[in-house]
Amino acid sequence: MKLWKNAELRVQVVVYILFTVIGTGVALWAAPRAWLLFFVLFLAMTGYHFYVARRRYAELGQLSAEIDAILHGAEQHILSDYREGELSLLRNEVMKLVVRLREQNDRMREDKEHMADLIADISHQLRTPLTALHLTVASMGGEEGNEEHLRELRKLILRIDWLVEALLKIARLDAGIIRFQKQEVSFAELLKKAAEPFEIPMELREQKLVVEAAGSFSGDLSWTAEAVGNIMKNCLEHMPGGGTLWITAKENAIYSEILIRDEGEGIAKEDLPHLFERFYKGKNSNGQSIGIGLALSRMIVTGQNGTIKADNHPAGGAVFTLRFYKGIV
């Protein structure tokens, strides 16, 4: 019985047994004819005490179960009505706390809905001039003498486009309006999708990609490809031309793991604790970096019951480790 797991109650049992034995012995010595009456009275008092204790523990157990249900999303206030006394006072205080938390939760939900509407509006307002810029640049493509300027302008527009998309994704994740899909995805499919945007830049810089993928993971294909792609982008930007990017993916009974290693100069020791912080620029970052790609990757990975860390590989270069756990961590 759960009742007997309580150490205080076990001590009370020992004390009551001692009192019963001692009281009965004294009664037997002082009034031999009345010892049985004393013994019955002691047993009755002991039985009544533990009957009350059992009811109290049952009520506490029910109250605990109802509080647990509320914490796990029960919509109704299902706390039972207890008699006057300490439990009633506790119930009233819990009810006050539940009402206050529900009010705060409602306000937060309204704020998130407002944020979602605001993000959608900002997205529309930003995409409109960017689309106009793309069309303008395309219409200027046939004019002589503008090739170099147009190339630079296209590069800047693509960078602005990426920054806007990344910031909007971070804002959506912050607002809690993203719901990650949970599906079984092969590592081969995931890494192919993540690497597609970098095929041409890698070819131009004569960089190689070596992939060893076996197994799968359970998560959101598109968002995880975004996270892996941001890490690949960071590695490729810090790796010289002709270098090789190594990606190894495998799984075991506990987690699915992706290792991404470059042949760059590695990560400065003082940067390692802050690398995934938003808007953090490392010691070896280029002038165009604003520090949101790795922060976005961490938000995506941790949002899917995963972990991400960065380190320097013994053979040189940086190595990023992503793990997606198959149970709650």
Give the key terms.
alpha+beta, 5-stranded mixed β-sheet, single chain, 329 residues, 8 helices, elongated
Would you mind describing this structure in some detail?
The chain is α+β, with helices and mostly antiparallel strands and 329 residues long. It is 57% helix and 13% strand. The chain is built from 8 helices and 7 strands, in the order ααααβααββαββαββ. Strand 6 (306-312) and strand 7 form a beta hairpin. Helix 2 (35-71) packs parallel to helix 3 (86-139), helix 3 (86-139) runs antiparallel to helix 4 (147-175) and helix 5 (187-195) packs across helix 7 (221-237).
Shape: elongated
Q: Secondary-structure element sequence? A: HHHHEHHEEHEEHEE
Largest sheet: 5 strands, mixed
Strand content: 5-15%
Helix content: 55-70%
How many strands in all? 7
Going by helix content, strand content and strand pairing, the class is alpha+beta
Low-confidence stretches: none
The assembly state of the depicted protein chains is single chain
